[in-house]
């Protein structure tokens, strides 16, 4: 069985930044990344990381691994993790789906979350292009278009026209069947959405259940999320604490409720951006090193 100082589960900005910090601190690292397509594969580019603004997720990963290769301390394992089994010595056996395992002293969860994709015609084609989850990530590419904000939360709906005015001066709210906000200053469409009309992922209208077409060029849609299967199993079987909204609970220094297991990136916060994830990955790596030596 191969032995490592740290096993990082997830190879996005959080995991790869942690791998860099740990590599430069002379720690042997295994990065385990599922062979399935990453969650951000459909994104036009990663933003907010100076020097790499706009590069595709695939190019970002390629550049990161080219940097890591200079140190020779991090290894990529294209495998999904089935379980983390605590050892008597305080380490963990990382059990890989389909067979096989490795041993590590510490674990960093950087798995991200699973988006709950609506079963709507046209959604997947537009997702990541003209249906966006974050204005800071994709608002610039969708500026000066007619925006729709999909939300059933009254407070979020009330703030929408002013909150997103920098990107669009034409913002309306879709409540998708929920009651409209009690605010005459907010234009709200309450009908249920049944389809999204687009051309090659370029949205041009939202179709409601009654057949009404509402012209829009961009939708801001913050999807429901759930933990990836591994995190759900750790919560059920290994005592990993989750917050009420299903994000992993940490202490502010990326420590989880399970000694020796840390978490960073999208799975610990609703504030999900590449630069925030990278910063959390760095924080987690420094904390792992500090905990080892304290």
TrEMBL record:
Instruction: Name the InterPro entries on file.
Output: FAD/NAD-bd_sf, FAD/NAD-binding_dom, Ferredoxin-NADP_redctase_2
Q: Where is the FAD/NAD(P)-binding domain?
A: 4-138, 193-278
What is this enzyme's catalytic activity, as reactions?
A: [thioredoxin]-dithiol + NADP(+) = [thioredoxin]-disulfide + NADPH + H(+)
Query: Could you tell me the keywords of this UniProt record?
Result: Flavoprotein, Oxidoreductase
* Keyword Nucleotide-binding included in the entry's annotation: no
Q: What sections of the sequence does the record tag as coiled-coil? A: none
Q: What is this protein called in UniProt?
A: FAD/NAD(P)-binding domain-containing protein
Q: Which organism is it from?
A: Planomonospora alba
Biological classification of the source: Bacteria, Bacillati, Actinomycetota, Actinomycetes, Streptosporangiales
């Amino acid at each position: 069985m191969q032995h490592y100082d740290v096993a990082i589960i997830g190879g996005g900005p959080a995991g790869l930044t942690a791998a860099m910090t740990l590599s430069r601190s002379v720690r042997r690292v295994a990065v385990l990344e599922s062979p399935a397509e990453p969650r951000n594969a459909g994104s036009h580019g990663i933003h907010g990381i100076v020097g790499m603004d706009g590069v595709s997720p695939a190019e970002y990963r390629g550049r990161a691994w080219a940097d890591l290769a200079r140190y020779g301390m991090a290894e990529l394992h294209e495998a999904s993790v089935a379980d983390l089994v605590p050892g008597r010595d305080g380490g963990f056996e990382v059990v890989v789906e389909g067979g096989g395992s490795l041993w590590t002293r510490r674990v960093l969860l950087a798995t991200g979350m699973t988006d709950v994709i609506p079963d709507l015609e046209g959604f997947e084609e537009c997702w990541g292009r003209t249906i966006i989850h974050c204005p800071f990530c994709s608002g610039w590419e969708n500026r000066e278009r007619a925006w729709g904000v999909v939300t059933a939360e009254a407070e979020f709906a009330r703030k929408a026209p002013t909150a997103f005015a920098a990107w669009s001066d034409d913002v309306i709210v879709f409540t998708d069947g929920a009651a409209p906000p009690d605010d005459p200053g907010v234009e709200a469409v309450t009908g249920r959405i049944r389809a999204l009309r687009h051309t090659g992922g370029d949205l041009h209208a939202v179709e409601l259940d009654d057949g009404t077409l509402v012209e829009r060029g961009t939708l801001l849609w913050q999807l429901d999320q759930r933990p990836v299967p591994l995190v759900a199993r750790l919560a059920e079987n290994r005592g990993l604490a989750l917050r009420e909204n299903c994000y992993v609970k940490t202490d502010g220094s990326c420590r989880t409720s399970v000694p020796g297991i840390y978490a960073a990136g999208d799975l610990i916060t609703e504030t999900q951006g590449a630069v925030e994830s990278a910063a959390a990955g760095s924080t987690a790596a420094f904390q792992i090193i500090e905990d080892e030596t304290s």
